[in-house]
Structure formats: C-alpha cells, structure tokens
Amino acid sequence: MAKIKAIRGMNDILPDQTPVWQYVESTVRKVLGQYGYQEIRMPIVEQTELFKRSIGEVTDIVEKEMYTFEDRNGDSLTLRPEGTAGCVRAAEEHGLLFNQTRRLWYTGPMFRHERPQKGRYRQFHQIGVECFGMAGPDIDAELLILTARLWSALGLTGHARLEINSIGTSESRKVYREALVAYLQQYKDRLDEDSQRRLETNPLRILDSKDPATREVLVNAPVLDDYLDEESRNHFSQLKALLDAAGVAYTVNPALVRGLDYYGKTVFEWITDSLGAQGTICAGGRYDGLVQQLGGKPTDAVGFAMGIERLILLLETLELVPDYVNNQADIYVTAMGDIATAPALALAEDLRTAMPSAVVVGHCGGGSFKSQMKKADRSGARYAVILGENEIRNQTAGLKPLRDDQPQREVPQAELAAELAKLV
RNA sequence: GUGGACGUAGCUCAGCUGGUAGAGCUCAGGAUUGUGACUCCUGCGGUCGAGGGUUCGAACCCCUUCGUCCACCCCA
C-alpha cells in the first residue's frame, strides 16, 4: 500500500517550525495593534465569481492557478488565491465601509496551483492589511512606515529595499497600455518569446523583461510617467515627500507594475536579495475602484500582503530568529522511581502556579535516571529539579543548574518555587 | 505549463567499471547503585521513491511514473 502523502506544494509546519511562526505572527500582531488596525477573519472559500471580477479574468491567477470546484449544489467555489477580494466582500457585505474609514488586517492560508519552488508554495500564508475610505497619500505613507517598523521589530532593517511606482488611474493606464502595445507591435519580431505573448496578456509586464534584445527595444518605448493623470502625479509626489519626511528610504521603479487588475496609482514592493528568485516579501498598492467594481459604493482603498513563508525563510537565512524563540523549557522536573511519580507531578504544578510564565516540563515515560537527566539537558531547561527517595523522605528537592558550573543544592520543597522564581 | 539537478536508515550523506547495504547524528542500554553536556563500547533502525526492462546477478544501466529542489513563467 502506497503511503498517503501531503499534497504537492502544501507543507506541514512541524513543531520545530511553529515557534518561529508564532514569533512572526505575534510581532506583526503587536505592530499592527500599535497603529489601531483591527483583525478580520474571512472564510477560505468564496464564490469563484468574486475572484474573477476582482483579480481580473485574464491574469495567470484566474486563468490557470485557482483551486476551483463545484459545491454539492452546483455553485462554483474557489479556494482563495489572495485575501483582498474576500476582505472587500466581507467588509462591504456587513456595512463596514459606508461613510467611514477602516484599517483592517487578516492572516491565513492562500492557494495557488503553481509549480512549487523556494519561497513559493501551493498553500502559502499571507498577512494582509487593507485600509478603506482614505483617499490621500497619507494612508499610503502610513502603511509603508508601518512595514518599516515591522522590519525593524524583526531585525530586518536594511535587508529589504522598498520600490514604489505610480501606475495611474485605470483610465490613464489604459491609454498608456495602448500606446505601449502600438509601439511594441512595430518591433514584435525583436521581442523575446515571453514578451510577444505578454503583448496580448499583460503588456506592462514587458517593461521588466530581462531579455537584452527586448530591453533594447524598450529604450525608446513610451514612458508610463508621461501618461499619468494630474491627480495620480500629485498623489505620487506627495507620497514621496511624506516618505522622505518620515525617513523611509525608497527607490522609484518605473517598471514596477502589479499583476492584479485592481491596482491603480500607488504600487509598491519590499524586495530582498537574499532569497533567490522569490525576493518579494511584501507587496501592495492602491485599489480605489475595487469596492465599486464589486457592487459597493465608490470607496478609496489601499493595502498590501506579506508572504509569511518568505519572511521566515529570510529570517532564518539571515539568522535573525532570537534564541529565546526556540527555547522549549525553563525547568525540567525528574522523577526517580514509581515512588516519585505523584510527588513530582504535584511539585511541577506548584512551580507552574508560582511561576505562570515559566515553562515547566515534567518527566514522563520512565527510563533510567541518567536518561531523564539527558532529556533535561536536551530540553534546553536551565534547571533540573530532582526528586528521588531521599528527597521525598526529607521533603526536599535537588536543584541542579544545567547551564553553568554552580553546584547542585538541596532545597526544601516548600521553598523551591520561591527559590526558582528568583533564578528564572 | 517549460527546463535542469536529485530521490539510499528518523535526519545528513557515502556506496568505484553492475557482485547482494555503510558512516555520522538521533534514539535505547552500558562503562559510572541516584546526575546531563565530553569520551568509549553495545544495540535498535532499510521493499535503496514506485513499477517495468536488460543481466547469471541491479542501489548502480534503460524505460515509465511519482515526488523534492532550483530556475523560467507568474507571484506573497
């Protein structure tokens, strides 16, 4: 019988991995909380139509990467490939957007049927942040300042660079797209294969082609900046001024376009060079038209998503995960022989009551005393508490430091908690 | 979807021109009646990813398939 294995590209996150996940999630939670952002939780499955209408019919995501299936009643449902669409749907559906401003965030798994590689999986996890009802560049700036603070909290400052661009309103972008396509059509045979295809699918993507011949053609191509409407241009220059004032470094990348149709005006990416091909750890932009497009009232909006796997990969590559994150135990309580089992359980409970934040691991499962000490060592605990016949007779416990050369002491059981509280 | 590399013990990997499976780590026990980390000894542990073919004989050669990794595409 062949063993059943996990689905390709969908990974188990094992016990030695969960501490760093919790570390990242709690850090993000803390920083977002500082800015007054509220958490929202949406279903993982939505009507397929939601993603088609928001992400765009001709994007790769919708065309070939969605996990779409029929519900038992015949409805077409899809495992969410990203969070913005569902967030907008939920917020609109429950009246969270009308005549008010909102700062929301969420986290959870997303699903895209792509070929897995480093930093890219079929089930992956994002932390998404979405802001509604704020038209000005101040909220764009707040989001970027917030991410900069998050990098600082994680020790990542200097390891990711910020690229920004303005792709204008959908109207001005449409005019530009036509001009670009018209220009490139003249040199179609000089473009690389991928870019020829992109002429039909996603012309703006050709701008960051790596092919030398294509790059040569692009030298004289129309520039998006020349086609920007006045409002987008002002918005962008104000944003740059706000970032300058806040001390957030950035570079303007005119070739930066986003893959999802709903973006307009501000777009940005935080990129690292330490992860190979999948170097974008955080990306987003403004999507003022989406709420209306999904049937709501016109509502300005801006947001971004971070890839948690990529963030963790980066932290581990740079060895930035603090040691305390992986420490499993503070105190390990041994029990020598059957006679010590009940007293050891009771003593460990006393310790937990007296030191609520300490991790007190009690030995279970028998084994020689030697092996118990070995496990105490492996647990990472700073102190071993030793309970055997002698200690029980004397109402004491052995207190043995495991991380320095201090000698072992005999402490009355009644005083042990107070004694350890001083040390841990 | 395309290209390349790779699948051998729980983990990291050796295994020569084809001759019948190895090491280190981990784990258990011992040297040390009740004391971890260092050392030494012993032991547990494998359908060599799966299926087929060639051969007296395949972990090794051939085909198919599944999976992993990296890159392209695309994206977090």
From TrEMBL:
It is an enzyme of class 6 (ligase). Homodimer. Its main location: cytoplasm. It is found in: Cytoplasm. Coiled coil: none annotated. This is Histidine--tRNA ligase. It comes from Marinobacter persicus. SUPFAM superfamilies: Class II aaRS ABD-related, Class II aaRS and biotin synthetases. GO terms for biological process: histidyl-tRNA aminoacylation. Its EC number is 6.1.1.21. The lineage of its organism: Bacteria, Pseudomonadati, Pseudomonadota, Gammaproteobacteria, Pseudomonadales. Residues 1-356 form the Aminoacyl-transfer RNA synthetases class-II family profile domain. One of its GO terms (molecular function) is histidine-tRNA ligase activity. Belongs to the class-II aminoacyl-tRNA synthetase family. The gene is hisS. The keyword Acetylation does not apply. The keyword Hydrolase does not apply. L-histidine binds at E82, G83, T84, R112, Q126, E130, R258, Y262, Y263.
